[in-house]
Amino acid sequence: MVKSEDEEGVGLEYWLQWQVLVCALIFVVPAVVALILIKKKREPLSSAHLWVPCWRNLNPLWLLFYRAFAFTSMAFLLFQTVSIFGVFVFLFYTQWSFALVMVYFAVGTAISARGCWRNSCSKKTLPKNGESDEFMKKDLGDSIKLQSNYEQEENEHKAGFWEYLMQAIYQTSAGAAVLTDIVFWCILVPFLLGENFHLTLLIGCMHSLNAVFLLIDSAINSLPFPWYRLTYFVLWSVVYVIFHWLLHAFGFTNWWPYPFLDLSTPWAPLWYLGLGLVHLPCYGLYVLLIKAKNSIFSRMFPYAFVRDAVLSGGNSLEKKQT
Questions:
Q1: What is the pLDDT of residues 51-108, one digit of tens each?
Q2: Which domain holds residue 222?
Q3: Are 48 and 317 in contact, with CB atoms under 8 Å apart?
Q4: Which string of DSSP letters, residue by residue, matches 127-149?
Q5: Which positions ≥6 away from 258 have C-beta within 8 Å?
């Protein structure tokens, strides 16, 4: 069987080109630095950050219902996309980031449900049907003491594997959603819209609702958003690039979903460098949005909005609800 020129491009000579080594260094070095930062920068995380809203009088059930709605909506859109275009769509970074946001809402729904359930189980009901005043006072004192103990327990409760995983997915999704939506609406739509590329309602939703759902969740949740969690975003993109390199190396495909991933051109290192650098403004934009949220809302609604630092410093669910 005679191979075509395109198939020959993924042979051994393709991987021995000088630009392949340079491109590999461009994403391997940041990946190593990211792993080192993740190991060193692991701040304590309270479980309350994951399911308690940042709004004092907002019941956590609303955050639970919203996350369940967002997950269901995104799952439906992803199912429709795969049904129309096939699993082939998962070669694109858009579907990777969209699926990641969907996973965040799935995990967030489960953790919110567990938090609400734990909170409902901790509440102590008062006696009914004409108990004596003395007993009522004693029971009320016990209830207050129980609430105080619960607050201390909640704030001292350390997040486990699923809580840290949810935080990592949240911060990775934020950067990935911004990257995909900005590239789509600012580059692909204005310059490539034509005979070979058509904008449909489904495609538009896939490139907008991921960021919209995340932004609404960010306006409600209490999750911190430190700058150095850019490391998760970097690793996510590195995994995507390695995935395509492996597909080409083992001969599963000889087609690149994005032209700038092709290693056959001497301009490939510049494309890869630009791809790496664009992660900084995309993640930085979301960091600025979270900082603006904490700064503006705390001034506009000083009695309703609870900053992350306040939540971690001693305000639990019951204190926020009173």
A1: 999 999 999 999 999 999 999 999 999 999 999 999 999 999 999 999 999 999 999 9
A2: 5-124+133-321
A3: yes
A4: P-SS--HHHHHHHHHHHHHHHHH
A5: 93
What token pair was written down for 87? Answer: 């699993």
- Per-residue pLDDT tens digits for 176-194: 999 999 988 887 787 766 6
**Nearest-angstrom CA–CA distance, 88 and 95:** 10
Q: Which residue has the tokens 């934020």?
A: 174
Residues 6+ apart with CB under 8 A from 47: 115, 154, 157, 158, 159, 160, 163
How many domains would you assign to the chain?
A: 1
Joined tokens for residue 125: 């009901």
User: What is the C-alpha to C-alpha distance for residues 239 and 31, in angstroms, rounded to an integer?
Assistant: 9
- Residue 181 CB neighbours (<10 A): 20
Residue 21 makes CB contacts below 8 A (sequence gap 6+) with none
